[in-house]
Amino acid sequence: MIQINKEIEGIEQDLQRKIDLKTKPLGSLGSLETIALKIGKIQKTLTPSLSRPTIIVFAGDHGLTEEGVSPFPKEVTYQMVMNFINGGAAINVFCRQNNIELKVVDAGVDFDFPMELDLIHAKIAYGTKNIIKEPAMTTDICNRAMDKGRQIVKDQFEKGCNIIGFGEMGIGNTSSAALLMNKFTGIPIEECTGRGTGHDNEGLKKKIEILKIASEKYKVTEPTEVLATYGGLEIAMMCGAYLEARKNGMIILIDGFISTSALLSAFSIDSSVLDNSIFCHVSEESGHKLMLDYLKAKPLLNIGMRLGEGTGAAVAYPIVKAAVSFLNEMASFEDAKVSNKE
Questions:
Q1: How far apart are CA 82 and CA 91, in angstroms?
Q2: Same domain, 260 and 158
């Protein structure tokens, strides 16, 4: 352990020196310098690279929608999955723009997709249970979902991917995310809960009342048990995906509210997952900023997005690419024969 720490300290010092000696005033590239340093540390090199950038969108349904926590019917989940497959969603647009590979996963949608579709068929169950009546998942189902997420990421890593982001689709999943946030951070439900897909004031009030009942119903503390009780199949799968990406030394692009709730779950299991995480944006969904504050995270963008799907990660990717490009391609004062300050 001491040897590893010395190795990391050594590469960090060398990276900082390389960054500081570029033809620019110290610190003048702001967050790009921070990102370059982080990626160099993740890859343990002075010349990092981004290979086969990929975003994986996990989709799953939620039994809690029976209680009216979303103004949209659960059928929208499978309809949006079809939209992803047909290339018409925002995440498709941004991935095409930035040459990011997109994978869509049926983690637990209440619909039978034809096997010939361009979809990763990983369904564990046809959605979760209604948390008001019983835990969303058994721990066995939750562990199976996490294992599936790990395998999906491992497959991408073995194909040469070293930078990965995760998105989600699931009507009702802001409710699961709010409950996970409440349990993992201790922040009151009222501050964790937002409008999701578009509640009015009355709908938001009802949503908060339902989530308070759910929160008080179960006294669970162990991370996997919390995830099983309150999570979604797509969130559990994403949690496993985060842990596998960390294990394989990949750069992880963190999206919005639901994706960060899955990261909170992973963080509660292995806090070192943050070492590989780049927080792409702060969502307008109520609670996300508090999540980021809890994780001491500084997001790259704040542009009013709250769509999910991994869109914040896709939009921020060019900034990450710019950080690696300046580190590898920008001349030093010595290379350019430019006088540095004494």
A1: 13
A2: yes
| Residues 66 and 16 occupy one common structural domain | no
Hey, what are 206's tokens? 């009802």
Note whether 257 and 117 are same-domain residues: yes
pTM above 0.85, yes or no: yes
17's enclosing H/E stretch is helix 2-20
Which residue type is seen at 14? D
Is 59 found in the same domain as 30?
Answer: no
Q: What is the pLDDT of residues 37-64, one digit of tens each?
A: 999 999 999 999 999 999 999 999 999 9
pLDDT bucket at 190, cuts 50 / 70 / 90: very high
Phi, psi of 146 (to 5 degrees): -60, -45
- In the residue annotation, 309 being an active-site residue is answered as yes
**What are the tens digits of pLDDT across the range 285-308?**
989 999 999 999 999 999 999 999
Instruction: Kindly state whether residue 145 falls inside one of the protein's structural domains.
Output: yes
The answer on 100 and 215 residing in a single domain is yes
H/E stretch holding 76 reads helix 75-85
Question: Which candidate in 309, 329, 334, 342 is catalytic?
Answer: 309
Instruction: Indicate if 257 and 132 belong to the same structural domain.
Output: yes
